[in-house]
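User: Show me a protein chain along with its predicted structure.
Assistant: Here is one chain, sequence first, then structure tokens.
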Amino acid sequence: MAAAARHGVMAVHGGMAMALGLALVFMLGGALYDHPEPAPDRLSRYYGAPTRFGIAMTLIWAVIGMGVGVWVAALMYWPEATPPWGWTSFGRLRPVHTSGVIFGFGGNALIATSFYVVQRTSRARLADALSPWVVLIGYNLFCLWAVSGYLMGATQSKEYAEATWYADIWLVVIWLIYFALYLRTLARRAEPHIYVANWYYLAFILVVAVLHIVNNLALPVRWTSAESFPVWAGVFDGLLIFEGSFLAIRPVNSLSHYTDWTVGHVHSGTLGWVAMIVFGAIGFPVPKHPERAEMAKPQPAA
């Protein structure tokens, strides 16, 4: 990617991927050389390292996304305080905030807790030791590509779907690996029932895939450029036209156009509902991880 693009956003992202790939090669080689053979009883133990990493990335992206959110909120009140560099403008910082919170904070929390829940409700270890790391590291590379691209001015200009076309393709690959890993883990379960929590996680995986493909699908202008055009342009143009007509109604316009109501209702839901659930979800497994590595066994009938 970096060699093909040679300059611009795509070249920078290719360089990121290359640096990450080299680092992972050395880390994997060192792990294979230094670590002894896995214990024979490993299949009777939960694999908690991916969950811990996912929770750590959840908190890191929370700091980034919410910190930038405070910054752009200040710019709304003091627009003259915008520094003279392009990447500090409101238009570039706002998607860093939204993507950092939605994808970085929320996405990592869902993936990390899904790995925790599926093992304990199935009484089965994750299907393999490599796929969880591919999912988590690959997903965070997508998040990093997205926010760094916004700062450099690369965007598809679609709400919550601004990432470049090659980042979208990368996320599809990661999401297929994630879906396959989840199904493979359920298939090897020792618990006869599939708990309802797993159906919810599967629904989350499928719905995100459908939304991503339908909303984000784009064709590149050139294979060596971040520029693209949406496949479903006519559909979304029609929806935008409807939204504009709806906002043209005086009572609607007076309520939601350039007022605090729109921002307020979004953040009351995000902070009061989503963030509370996320903090509760990651707050439950963290204290338990050092205590319990072995799988729970069904108790004999009295």
